Amino acid sequence: MRNFVFVLFLTITGGVWAIGGAGLYGGWPEVFGIQFVTPEGWRLSVGLAPERADPERYSVAVSLDLVLAAGTLYSDGGEMVDLAYYAGAGATASVLRAEPEVNGHAMLGLEAYFTAMKSVGFFGELQLGQRFVFMPLWTQPYLGLRVGLSLR
Length: 152
Prior knowledge:
This protein is mainly beta. It has one helix at about 1-20, and strands at about 20-30, 30-35, 40-50, 60-75, 80-95, 100-115, 120-135, 135-150. The protein has one helix and eight strands.
């Protein structure tokens, strides 16, 4: 377990230095994941999602998103907190599972930064879209939620 935590720490800090941002998140359908963000607004996420048929098994969900709009909702001049929003679109593929699936989604999120450097923040995000399952072939609406910690 210590080795896993150490590798996770190196991966996240390396992502922050290499491409501009990284973070940890939890939510639904991914219960735990890491994400990397570029200065151009691209975000790559890798998370663990429980199987629908057998919640004891987990699959890997890989998501690629693009932030299309972002702005500040509130700023106190760098003293305590800055609140920001972002909106965009993306797609997620769940692999290594009995029922492979993809989804396309729109996303809307809020971020709060609590330090003067604005390098550590918390975020919450809502994703709405359409899910496509391939075995058997069917579709349904998609709802995703994320909360997490972002480092920039």
